[in-house]
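ENTRY TYPE: paired fold submission
RECORD: A
CONTENT: sequence, then C-alpha cells
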Amino acid sequence: MRRCWDSDPSNRPSAIEIHKLIKSFCKFYISYKMGGSNEVEIKNQIKEAENYRKLYHSLKKNKQHPQAIYTSRLLNPYTAELQEYDNSECLDCEIIY
C-alpha cells in the first residue's frame, strides 16, 4: 500500500503488479473457501498483523519542531477568486473558460 502512495511515480507498482496481487488474493480466498487453507493459521496471522499495527501506531507520534511555524497558505493563485463564486445564488450558471 505504501508503494502506491510514493511521491516518486517510478517507485509505485505497475497495473500488472497490482493485478497479480489482487489475483493472488482471489486465489487464496477461493482456496480458503474450498477448505484448502488452515483457518487457525490465517487467524493467527491476522492477529499478529493487527498487534504489530497497534504497536507501530502507538510508537509513531507526530512531533512538531519547536521552532517551526505551521500556517496555511494559498496553494494556487487561480483559487483566490473562488470565495466570490462560492456564495452565488445562480446554481445553473454556465462556466466559461
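RECORD: B
CONTENT: sequence, then C-alpha cells
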Amino acid sequence: MNIRETIRLAFRSVKVNKMRSFLTALGIIIGVSAVITLVAIGQGASSSITDQIQGLGSNLLIVSPGQASQGGVHMGAGTLNTLTPEDANAISKLRSVSAVSPSVTRQAQLVYRNQNMSATVEGTSADYPRVRSTELQAGRFFNKYEVQGQANVAIVGANVVENLFGDRDAGVIGQKIEIKQIPFTIIGVLESQGGGMTNNDDRVFVPVTTAMNRLFGMTKVNTIYVSALSTDVIDQAQAEVTSTLRIQHNLSTREDNDFSITSQAQILNTAQGITGIMTSLLAGIAAISLIVGGIGIMNIMLVSVTERTREIGIRKAIGATRGVILRQFLIESIVLSLAGGIIGIIIGVGGSQLIGSMTALTTKVTLTPVLFSFFFSMLVGVVFGVYPARKAASLNPIDALRYE
C-alpha cells in the first residue's frame, strides 16, 4: 500500500467519527489559539510601549535624583532630592546640549466655577515642548519671559478641559481656573494622547518658577530633561552632564553620583526586556494546553486501536505490514493535531484582531507565532501518536482476529 492510499485511509478514519475527532482536536485548538492570542497581546503591548518611548525623542536624557538602580534605569529617588534649578542652568551651557527643561510635579486641586478635579500639576520651562516633543491643540506654550516673571498662566490637558468645562472642544483659551486657590489663565490646550506612559491628558503645565515659589514652596526640582544636539553626541552629552553635576554637587572622586541619567535607549531596552519575558511567559503557559491536547490525542488513539483491533488483524492477515499500520495511525494522529492547529490559528488570529478592535488593548499578530503553532501542533501529533501507532503495528494478527 502506497503512502497516498495510507493517507486516504487515515482521513477516512478521522471523518467516520467527526464529533469525537473534533473533541479530540479541541485541546490543540484551544492551545494554538491561546498561544497566538496571548503572544499578539504581548507583542502589541511591546510595540505600543516602544512607540511611546521612541516618542520621547532619541536624543533625550532624563536626569533624576538618587543613584541609578541595576540596569541603569532610575527607579525612584527616595526621600533625597539633589537637583536644583542651578543644575539645569549649568547643564544648559554645555556644548553638546540643545535644550534643558527642569520639572517639578505635584498633585493639586483644580477649580472652575462649581467644577473641581484633582490633577498633576507640572512646573517646567519654556523649552519643554521642544525637549519632550509635546504638541498643542490650541493656544501656545508659555515663553521664557513668563517663566522669569513667575506668571500665572497654564496649559491644560484634554481630560482637564472635559472635566472642568464639560466638553473637550470647549473654547477655554483665556478662561481662568484656580490651582490651590490661586487663579491661572489658560493659554494653551495640549493635544490629546489618549493614554500611555507619556500621557499628559490629566496634566496642567505652569512655569517652573511659579510652581516652585507660588504653588508648592520648593527649592529642588524632581527631574531635569536634557535634549542633546543629536543622537551622534548622546554619549558625549551624558558624560558632560555627569561631570557638570558632580562639580555642581561638590562630589569627590570617592563619592558615588547622587543623581542618575537615563537615556531613551536604556528605557527602551529595559521595557523590551520586561515585555519580552512577559510574552514568553504567557506563550509558555498557553503552550501547556498544547501538551494536554497531545495527551488527549494519544488517549483517543489508544481507544481507537482497541476498537479497531479486529480491523487491524484482518488487514495484517491479507498482507498489510507493520509499517503500513504504523503509518496509518501516525498519520491519523498528525491529521487530528494539524486540523486542530489550523482551526486554532484561524480562531487565534481572528480573536486577536477582535480584541484589538473592541478593547483598549493593542494586539500585533506576526508570522512567527503562527508558524510556531502550526509546526508545534504537527510535532505534538507525531510525538503523541507514536506510541498508539506502534501498539497498533505490533498487534499479533491471530490474537487481533480473536479479539471480541
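NOTES ON RECORD B: The chain has two domains: 3-53+269-402, 81-257. The CA atoms of residues 86 and 205 lie 21 Å apart.
STATUS: closed
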